[in-house]
Design a protein that fits this description.
Layout (H helix, E strand, L loop, with lengths): L4 E11 L2 E11 L5 E4 L6 H8 L7 E6 L2 E2 L4 H10 E4 L12 H5 L1 H5 L4 H14 L15 H13 L5 E4 L8 H16 L3 E6 L2 H7 L2 E6 L2 E6 H5 L2 H6 L6 H11 L9 H8 L24
Helix pairs in contact: 5-6
Length: 293
């Protein structure tokens, strides 16, 4: 299947002889949720900006539906219609006085009829669960609300790919879960989300594929395989994910289950056993932590 968006051999440097990316490859396919991991300053945001056309590579190419993107008005408009980038800090993206006005900016600039613009704005606000904020001033919103408005502005463009740079940064745990639920809904409606994060466990439970940016290159694969590669994660200054270790432990206990979340693991194990009854790991209740004497 041809990727919607692809990076081939991208090289980019902010300073001469200090490349941030050096031959980076990444293919984003429709319907495949991708989490991009890497250290601070490792090139995740740069990669996203190159894919969105905000930066021009020194070498390599960005391809849309298998065709290299031409960096002129028509080419970049076609790219941004299909792939929308949402920045980490919503204040870098919101500039209109009111929420509905901000969300309408992209559709208006596409030259869409007023009825279509209103329909897209209403739909995007509903998808993000912020319809009640339509008339609110953007500068009076909370950080989490601003994040949702910024995403709504991208969704209003009806892209096939929604590329989110650290979308969970600055959110409390409840806010993270609400955002992930929103991304699930967008994915079900036909928009493929791609996000960057430092949270390997979030990537494990959410992504189909994981891309690790390290030393100027990108290593991509199935989430379980990439996140089970301890050496690769160390090279990107990332800690290990808990799920691969739990999967190995379950396999040694004779279970083929592969829980991706703590809640799924708790459901698998069931309630704590009564005294003397072996648990799923062969540990008798009351034995853990026992000492002699």
């Amino acid at each position: 299947m041809t990727p919607v968006l692809e990076a081939r051999g991208l090289t980019f440097a902010y300073e001469t002889d200090r490349p941030v990316l050096d031959g980076a490859d990444l293919a984003l396919h429709p319907g495949r949720r991708v989490a991009v991991l890497g250290p601070n300053g490792g090139g995740k945001t740069t990669l996203f900006r190159l894919l969105a056309g905000a930066l021009a590579p020194a070498a390599g190419a960005v391809l849309l539906d298998g065709v290299p993107v031409v960096r002129n008005r028509r080419g970049l408009t076609a790219l941004r219609t299909q792939a929308q980038l949402v920045l980490q800090d919503p204040d870098d993206q919101l500039f209109s006085a009111g929420v509905a006005q901000d969300v309408s900016f992209g559709p208006v600039n596409l030259g869409l009829p007023p009825d279509e613009v209103r329909s897209r704005v209403d739909g995007a606000l509903a998808a993000l669960g912020i319809g009640a904020l339509a008339d609110r001033p953007t500068h009076l919103l909370s950080f989490g609300q601003k994040k949702r408005v910024a995403i709504a502005g991208a969704v209003a463009m009806a892209p096939r790919l929604l590329v989110l740079d650290e979308p969970t940064a600055g959110l409390d745990p409840a806010g993270v879960e609400e955002l992930l639920d929103t991304l699930v809904g967008l994915h079900a409606a036909g928009t493929t989300p791609v996000l960057s994060t430092h949270d390997v466990d979030l990537a494990q439970r959410w992504a189909d594929e994981v891309a690790v940016v390290a030393d100027g290159r990108v290593v991509t694969g199935e989430a379980s395989a990439v996140l089970g590669d301890a050496a690769l994660l160390r090279s990107a200054r990332l800690g290990p994910a808990w799920a691969p270790a739990v999967h190995r432990l379950l396999a040694r206990a004779g279970s083929s289950a592969r829980p991706r979340t703590a809640a799924a693991l708790h459901e698998l194990l069931g309630p704590p056993p009564t005294s003397g009854v072996p648990s799923a790991f062969g540990i008798t209740a009351g034995s853990a932590g026992e000492t002699s004497g």
